[in-house]
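input
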Amino acid sequence: MDGNLTFSLETSNVPFIIDPLTGDVLVNRLIDYESMRDQKYFNLTLRIEDAGPGTLRTATMMLQVHVMDADDNDPAFVYSGCFAHNNICAWPKYTGALQLKKNDVIKVYPVPNKVNGYVSINAVDGDADIGNEIVFSIASTIPPGQESNFKVETVKSAVGKEYTANVISLVDQNLNEGFEIFLKAEEKSENKRYNIAMILFTTTAGATSAQQQQQDSSSSNSTRVEDYSSLEIALIIVVSILAAFLFSMIVGVVIFSCLRRKSSDRESFSTSM
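output
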């Protein structure tokens, strides 16, 4: 060989290119470790050409590139039936009952509820092969300022890499409809990546998806008197009375006009006679 070498990549449809002069293999697009499933490596075939005077010499070699996991994904809440994206629950949400007892672990139900029962709140590191430890805490509540009424215990699963959050009420509580807890799952790492799940407290907690749809349909098709305040009811009554009065006035004016026209017609007829 005279040193006039050219490098090329014979393997197609891979996220790599090769520098034809130096032979450096470079990544040319994003490689998502989690989407590679079981095979976490690429087999590449490299070709080397020596374009010497009068003779072209070639050689090939195999190169196996292994992909390592990186800390680039947030923790993921996991439960059956959730709205999933890339096998991770998107917009994780649970519901709970309005009445809570002191020192009891809050029972929560997944949204949508396809299991017909309460579940544990579980989360894992989004980077499966790294498996950072997960710690839960209450990020905030709506209405705000109620965080001190709750505490969260983090429990490591005996099997697998899941962590469970036990949300505990520190006092007896009768929550208002629509009260919310925002639960934070944070990985113990330099990046401190985290994810948030919502717990909505409602009278319909635990309803299955079919039951919830039926209730929503019934609610949308009926309006109850108790949905209105006293002021709204009074305004409705006043408006109804005014509308009836105006209608009566209009009818009276129309009748008066008709009678007056008839009277004028009679006078005209008498004059002509």
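quick obs: Confidence is low (pLDDT under 50) at residues 222-226.
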